[in-house]
Amino acid sequence: MNSGAALSAMTRQSTPVKIAEQLRERMIDGHFAPGQQINEVLVAGQLNLSRGPLREALQRLSQEGLLVSRPNRGVFVVQLTKDDVDEIYRVREILELGAAEIIAAQPALQRRQTSRKLLEIAVKLAEAAEADDWAQVFRLDLEFHTTLVAESGKSRLLRAYTTLATESLMCMTNLDQAYPALSSVSNHTVMAELIATGTFPEIRAAFHRHLSVQ
To answer: Is 195 within 8 Å of 96 (Cβ atoms)?
Structure first.
């Protein structure tokens, strides 16, 4: 696969953060496959950048665990195994339940507003599954859960969750066993409704069931 084919040229003033965002997207959609080496010269040319900002972006992604640096060989996209999938979903459950507990303690109006946001995503998710658009299903699934975490209002919790979300999308794209059965798509509507009116034990049970079906 041509590692630069799907990259869009960027201005020389682009920050390492923006560069990292584009590279992260290319890992999610499979243009950079698990285990693939990132050709620094080729990518810098495709992005119309000097290698300095690109190296900073690669270092950022390495710190997130999405890239692996191998001495005297270069930088490679991380390869995620079934054991990695299991660990990712266990940690996701911990973080999501932490966010859900915070939301469950919020005023009723705020909970209903969060619930409406989640229900809108759940509807789109069901439509994408009905259309057999699995790339969209994967993204909407993670949008649902990331929105939940964001609505907790805790920036550090969201920051910790974001890397897990990226790893989850990479798993969904590249590992058949990384997404639950189609029947679990409907779980999102149940979870969204519980955010509005459910007790925290009810919410916890629903999220546990959903994230344990991998």
So the answer is: no
Q: What is the pLDDT of residues 138-187, one digit of tens each?
A: 889 889 999 999 999 999 999 989 888 888 888 777 665 545 555 578 88
Task: Give the closest residue to 62 by CA, choosing from 92, 90, 40.
Answer: 40
User: What are the tokens at 79?
Assistant: 């390869």
Tokens 């660990």 belong to residue:
87
* CB within 8 Å of 152: residues ≥ 6 apart: 98, 99, 100, 102, 103, 158
For residues 214 and 210, give the distance between their C-alpha atoms in angstroms, rounded to a whole number: 8
Q: How many helices (H) and strands (E) does the chain have?
A: 9, 2
Listed as ranges, residues in the chain with pLDDT below 50 are: 1-5, 12-13, 178
3-state secondary structure of 161: helix
Name the residue among 71, 94, 67, 101 with its Cα closest to residue 195: 101
pLDDT of residue 1: 42
Measured CA to CA, the distance from residue 19 to residue 47 in angstroms comes to 8
User: Residue 190 corresponds to which amino acid?
Assistant: V
CA nearest neighbour of 25 among 53, 49, 61, 1: 61
State residue 3's pLDDT score. Answer: 43
